[in-house]
Amino acid sequence: MTDLDKTFAALGDATRRAIVERLASGEAPLSELAEPFDMSLTAVSKHVRVLSDAGLVSLTKRGRTRFCSLKAAPMKDAVTWLEDYRTFWEGRLDSLGRHLAKDNK
Questions:
Q1: Strand order in the sheet with 57-62
Q2: What is the three-class DSSP state of 105?
Q3: Contact 58, 52 (CB under 8 A)
Q4: Would you give the distance in Å from CA 95 to the centre of its chain?
Q5: C-beta separation of 83 from 102 below 8 A
Q6: Quick one: how far is CA 55 from the chain centroid?
Q7: Distance CA 91, CA 51 (A)
Q8: Confidence at residue 99, expressed as pLDDT on a 0 to 100 scale
Q9: Rounded to whole angstroms, how far apart are CA atoms 32 and 69?
Q10: What range defines the domain where residue 94 resides?
């Protein structure tokens, strides 16, 4: 599995996207990340592990607490890949708009 595949797979889950959104505002202990979810700390840890394996999150242990931080670099690669398709779809939609405008004349 490529790094890009890992990024998309990790972000394909709503819980993991919510964790990434929270971490965008700064580092957080794992227990804090688990608070908004109706699941066990173990289940949230598994989601964090998927994000970590994809290179999106780093884990550090201070004392008995594990802290998570966002590592956004892999998302930049995903955005770059998606950008090519944005250009494609904008061109297609512009073409459709011109076609529809001709039909309405």
A1: 28-29, 65-70, 57-62
A2: coil
A3: yes
A4: 31
A5: no
A6: 11
A7: 34
A8: 76
A9: 12
A10: 3-103
Neighbours of 70 (CB within 10 A): 20
CATH number at residue 91: 1.10.10.10
Residues 6+ apart with CB under 8 A from 70: 20, 23, 24, 56, 57
pTM of the model: 0.79
Task: Provide the residue type at 21 as one letter.
Answer: E
Per-residue pLDDT at 19: 97
Q: Domain tally for the chain?
A: 1
Asked if 66 and 30 count as a contact pair (C-beta separation under 8 A), the reply is yes
CA gap 19, 71 in Å, rounded: 12
Tens-binned pLDDT, residue by residue, of the chain (105 aa): 689 999 999 999 999 999 999 999 999 999 999 999 999 999 999 999 999 999 999 999 999 999 999 998 899 988 888 888 887 888 777 777 887 888 776
